[in-house]
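Annotators were shown the component list below and the corresponding predicted structure, then asked to write short factual statements about the assembly.
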Amino acid sequence: MDITGRLQEQVQDAYAAQRPLRIRAGTTKSFYGRPVDADAELDLREHSGIVDYQPAELYVTVRAGTRLRELQETLAGQSQTLAFEPPCHGEDSTIGGVVACGFSGPARPYAGSARDHLLGVRILDGRGQDLRFGGHVMKNVAGYDLSRLMVGAQGSLGVLLELSLKVLPLPARHMTFVQERQMAAAIKELQRWEAQPVPLSASAWMDGQLYLRFSGAESVLAGLRACVDGDLFLPDEATRFWAQLRDQQLPFFASGSPLWRLALPTGTQPVLSELPQVLEWGGSIRWLRGDASAEEIRAQTASRNGYAIQYRGESNSQPFPPLPEPLRTLHGRVKDAMDPRHILNPGRLYTDL
Amino acid sequence: MEESTHTPAEQDFLRALAAALPAERVRSGRESLQPYECDGLSVLRELPLCVVLPQDREEVQTLLRLCRQYQIPVVPRGAGTGLSGGARPVAGAVLLSLARMNRILDIDLENRTARVQPGVRNLAISQAVRPFGFYYAPDPSSQIACSIGGNVAENSGGVHCLKYGLTVHNVLALEVLTADGEVLHLGGLTPEVPGYDLLALFIGSEGLLGIVVEVTVRLLPVPENTVVLLAAFAELGLAADAVSAIIAAGIIPAGLEMMDRLAIQAAEDFVHAGYPRDAAAILLCELDGSAEELVERVALVEEILRRQGADSIRVARDPDTRALLWKGRKAAFPAVGRMAPDYYCMDGTIPRGRLAEVLERIARWSEEIGLAVANVFHAGDGNLHPLILYDANAAGQIAAAESFGQRILALCVEVGGSITGEHGVGVEKLDSMCVQFSAAELETMHRIKGAFDPEGRLNPGKAVPTLHRCAELGAMHVHGGVLPFPELERF
Ligand SMILES: Cc1cc2nc3c(=O)[nH]c(=O)nc-3n(C[C@H](O)[C@H](O)[C@H](O)COP(=O)(O)OP(=O)(O)OC[C@H]3O[C@@H](n4cnc5c(N)ncnc54)[C@H](O)[C@@H]3O)c2cc1C
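Structure shown to annotators:
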């Protein structure tokens, strides 16, 4: 259903009254980010449905409140997929929520991220104006790229109404290998694979085991089988494993202590290796659990040119690393340009955005 | 004698500049400015106040601070191969050439990245990392000349973008100077950075948001094997439909290019690539991957091409034959350039499924208007490059070519595409921007510009038209209609 008119009225009223709005969809990701300083809610869930799907043109235009599962089923019906493998944090996860948070799954280092697959958006800005940027063709450099700016902005620059996303053919087959490796050796092994022209499509390390997934035509995978060490995962088991990693359903993610997400340059040697951790994305994402202090984790990560996000945990008053000047001031100005009265998800990303 | 044309503020600025930078960094005087009076769009010319050629970031900073102090605008320039007038000088503004900042600073094989200065040529990056088995994927046809800084500013594409993405997909980090000379670090070696994706916003901003002083690019391993197929068709429409058929079959070729009869003949006369001269259109399809995979996919593409009515198919597997087949395509612009005194290169994108119909309409207009059009383009991306042939010395032909071009761009928007796929807006497509975007959307872009460059000193008058300009045009046209002849010099 298209409820643009109602949503626009709500945002315009909120603008007139200077009353902040909390944008909500499936609320499967409310654990992430800061609490929004708003009493009123803007509910996107009814704003759903596929607007235009052209399999031969490799794009789909979809309303933001469409459930991710529903979109994926439609695409799978044409043997296509969102190649960034968006995580599904629950049945109610919406494509708008995924794009707003900028989440991508295991294929991200090899197939690109959510923003890499976004072609265009229709949004409501903080004045309630209905705006379109980008489009649905693969190449479009007319004007500033305001569509990709929305990815990861967590709704603080605009309400996503419609998204045009690039879709790609589903790979014919996957093949997953498991190797016994200590963390440092696994990082080396990952470096080695990533430097080769092979169809690596996912990688992970946990509990002394390195997981490598290759995807492509039967003939390609047959050729690879002889070159990769380790045990071959049964196809069904492998599919379940990657889905559980993607959606954070593995036991590692269930335990109680705070969960940290470290973003690092790929080849970074083990960091805080005394703490339980899971590596993804060729080692460039490391999930960490445990009771090290936030200061310690931030300092260790920063010294390796990385960033640490407190992904889940009780005291989420400042989950994202602080922005240095002059970037911080620039962020404020970009926010003011899009949402001058700070009515869209204020405080979700940073207190002043 | 030049001095007399400068305002007192400009004279003060030039004096301060001479005191702040070594003499050989600054050029002024008509003769030394003339080589910079236009970019690749040579119908638009202007002389800058002066040209400055810094050698490092600190010199760029010095310049930008003086420009702030004396309120002098700045136009950045890379190699000047841009085709939309983005680097065309603005009267009274400094032309800032980044061409001398052309060092490769670091090649990091572990992280598969290269850190380079903005004046490094696109091809030089791939050449530097080739011995290690890597390359930089985006490959504009101008790659021997164009700079990586210019590529960032235009979000340039190339033959291999269909599979490997545009500049925005292959640049990891930028060091940028704001209009005030402050240093910004956008992106990074990590898969994500805190805050907004300002890197994506910056790429393609045509020199309006900041000066790129350092670029970190992602390197890819060179594919194991490559095969190029050349298919000839007796009708343009058949070739266009074959493009859609290949993509619809779930194949993403490394490159998928199309040339029509005029372009084929021009290229043949020029480089003798062995193209079938009697064909109405040819497709060049490049596939890459492992040997096993290629056997299968080449067979599949051959089958599709036959089914779509290809008269002949050549398969080139060895490097020499492949290079020869690409040579004709890569030399197509200069080859077409030999057929007429002047040509005007357009750059619109459309959904692939509308290729046949749009090419047919362009051909019909070409006959009506009496100006020939050669087509050579990135068919897989739906990125058209109609080359309109004209003679600048023949009365009315410049105007006719320009209004023909505007009509083509309006058609692209009408069928669901864009007025520019890779060459940017510059000054050339300011009017067409009014067709593609609403006033509120353009106003939002001006606000974003204001967030980065509140005083509007960087590349003024480019990329985003004023609402006033659109309003004037708006009185004359409605919704995707055909635009009247634009006065290109009006801002
Ligand atoms: C024969 C030919 C073929 C071409 N083929 C292609 C193609 O296949 N694909 C494609 O995308 N383009 C193509 N182009 C267009 C052109 O080469 C590209 O746009 C290229 O990226 C421009 O680079 P440049 O260094 O020449 O930039 P310039 O023309 O000097 O400048 C282009 C824009 O970038 C800005 N700029 C330059 N350097 C900087 C900097 N350091 N910081 C901030 N702003 C800067 C300028 O102000 C200007 O707006 C072609 C051009 C020619 C002549």
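Statements collected:
1. The first helix of chain A runs from residue 4 to 17.
2. Chain A touches chain B through 79 residues (CB under 8 Å).
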